[in-house]
Amino acid sequence: RCVCYGLGRFGRCPAARYQLAFLLLLLDELRVPPARCALFDPAFSEREAAALRALGLRLLPENEEGKHGVEGAATLFYMVHCGKALYNNLLWSNWSPAALSKLVIIGNSFRGIEERLLSRILERDYSYIAKVLRGVEEVALPSHPRYLDTFNDTSVHWFPLDKLQELSPEVWEFMEEPMYQDCEDLEIIRKGE
């Protein structure tokens, strides 16, 4: 399965078109049928939504705010240039070694997030990203001069079960839903906004 968040206005934006093309090639390479790929971006126009349906892709009916569970199935999350809260919500909604070990994220580098944020901000606002840093493997996509703006700071992330099981039991006990009241740079469109 595949879930794609935040693709953007590919009818107007060349970078979003390249990201869509890469997604389609990736689905083909991984032999994921288009019908097993669900997308959501509140910015999609009616024409863009129709084009995605014509490609055989599914549109999610509502804004999940990134809170999509893997439900026991291996799932690729394609989230290029999404906000930190979206990644944090995704981790929270799959917060167990069994669930996290079934997901792969193609999106902003978690190491880059760690390097750019003060540790107290990372732990306060994006605690699930902060807690999983020692349990994630990450490989940056190779850079290409033509696509620097399209895939810059993009990595493939996966969560090996043995690494997750090495984390302290306390890491898994705290499962409070993220709220983001004090977050100054919230990059997420919430339900109803």
Automatic annotation (TrEMBL):
GO CC annotations, alphabetized: cytoplasm; nucleus
Origin: domain of life: Eukaryota
Residues spanning the membrane: none
UniProt keyword annotations, A-Z: Signal
Record flagged with keyword Signal: yes
SRR1-like domain mapped to chain residues: 1-158
Pfam family, one: SRR1
Signal peptide start and end residues: 1-37
Stored InterPro entries: SRR1-like (IPR012942), SRR1L (IPR040044)
PANTHER family (alphabetical): SRR1-LIKE PROTEIN
Protein family: Belongs to the SRR1 family.
Name of the protein this chain belongs to: SRR1L protein
Species name: Rhagologus leucostigma
Lineage: Eukaryota, Metazoa, Chordata, Craniata, Vertebrata
